[in-house]
User: Fold this.
Amino acid sequence: MGILDGKRILVAGVTMDSSIGFATARVAQEQGATVLISNFGRALNITKRIAKRLPVEPAVLELDVTDEAHLAALPDAVREHVDGLDGVVHSIAYGNPATLLGGNFMEGPWPDVAQALQVSAYSLKALAQACKPLMGPGGSIVGLTFDATVAWPAYDWMGVAKAGLESCSRYLARDLGPDGIRCNLVAAGPLKTLAAKAIPGFEDLESAWKDRAPLGWDESDHTPTAKAVVALLSDFFPATSGEIVHVDGGFHAMGM
Ligand code: NAP
Assistant:
């Protein structure tokens, strides 16, 4: 008996088995969910291969969150596998590492910033809107952030995008709440993934976590983050929306 028994979950943003989305799909399956995963472009074939490493091989959908045609086609693509969705995981971000990350904040060019904001923040609304016809009361949307209440070394414009994501989640909580749909985020500490490796100077964040997180922090262990996402997808947070749950070893609560 799992906490997602009978639930149908779409996890958007799985490329490698190092993706947080992969760990989330695994824990969701272990907890009884029927899981669909998605990715886009050239990496879709990698995702299809990686999907075989999950406990149950899930359906893999193509979804570029910036492509209106993909978003419009999503409900029918989902209905080929399940008759609706109880949960949606947004595990998606992109910012050009050469221009937007690694200490180049003052030089970040607008077209790249616009792309980062669209893929990493606006897309939460786009995905929620696309999935809404598939969802009903008790539905849950969960995204992933990196605490955007402060400025970090190296994170630069992705930090601004995450601030947008966090605000977007609160507005979705407002506008989807009357339909009984929750929207929450998990603020994870630094985890070794493809996206993280692309951030120049990410090691500095990792070492800060090692020094300050009172519970300690293992940047190779995605399971605590995945478990929190799954908990928020479940019926165990029925009255929680617009919330950000920190899964960071307690780092955010320390002054020094
Ligand atoms: P990841 O494995 O690289 O996952 C990011 C995913 O976003 C990839 O599957 C990527 O696909 C996908 N993506 C990028 N642009 C897209 C688009 N236009 N349409 C659809 N999908 C797109 O890295 P991750 O670390 O697991 O990231 C997942 C989430 O966790 C992100 O929101 C990230 O910011 C957040 N997060 C990560 C950390 C960390 O330390 N790793 C900490 C806190 C929060 P491609 O690989 O094909 O580009």
User: Anything to note?
Assistant: Residues 17 and 76 are 27 Å apart (CA to CA). The mean pLDDT is 97. The chain is about 40% helix and 15% strand.
